[in-house]
Amino acid sequence: MARTYSCFNKETIALYEERLSEGDAQRFELEERLASSEARLRKALEPVPIANARPSSDAAQIDNESLRDQILHLQKKITGLEDTLDDVQSASEKEAAALRERMKRAREKEDALRKELMETRKEFEQICKLEGNARTRIQEIEEALRESTIALENARAEVEVLRTELGVSVIKRDV
Predict the structure, then answer these.
(1) Coil, helix or strand for 32?
(2) Which residue of 49, 90, 97, 158 lies most exposed, with the fewest beta carbons within 10 A?
(3) Residue 47 gets which letter from DSSP?
């Protein structure tokens, strides 16, 4: 039974470690995406060198508005990714706590079963000892019975001899 719980504990630990590694992989992926988005955002926010600056025109204004929209979109995306990362970390922590609690309960059950097994072994040893004592006592009683039977048979034989002698002596006296 202890082996079953031990196997269960190993499987539970393996599952826990697998989920942690999945959570870490997701976190690293989100962090990479976040870093990439931040890099693009910084690149988009960099001021354009004056040498390359063109006179203000409708196209430049459209480009600026488009870049601002992209920046807002990327900022929202970053916020969403950060929220997702927080949710994943929170879920991972909750799962880890639940797994620790299950492991604790499994250890408690295993300890209780181990204690019960020890008590059962002690009981078994006591029963074996009592059985040995009972067998010895039975052998002693059987031996005493045999001796009593032999003594009884000897006494009967002696009584018969005495009866016969008594019967012969009574007959001799009457004659």
Answers:
(1) helix
(2) 49
(3) P
Residue carrying the six token digits 């009584």: 159
- Among the listed residues 110, 101, 112, 105, the one whose alpha carbon sits nearest the alpha carbon of residue 5: 110
Place of tokens 């250890």: 107
pLDDT single digits (tens) 22-34:
888 888 888 888 8
- Domain locations in the chain? 2-48+57-125
Name the pLDDT band for 5 (thresholds 50, 70, 90). Answer: low
Check if the beta carbon of residue 120 is closer than 8 Å to that of residue 12. no
Distances in whole angstroms, Cα of residue 46 to Cα of each of 50, 73, 81: 12, 17, 23
Q: What is the pLDDT of residue 115?
A: 96
Q: Which tokens belong to 173?
A: 């006296």
DSSP state of 175: -
Tokens 């052998």, residue?
A: 139
Q: Alpha carbon of 6 to those of 105, 109, 113, 173: distances in Å? A: 13, 11, 12, 96
Cα distances (angstroms) measured from residue 162 to each of 47, 141, 159: 142, 31, 5
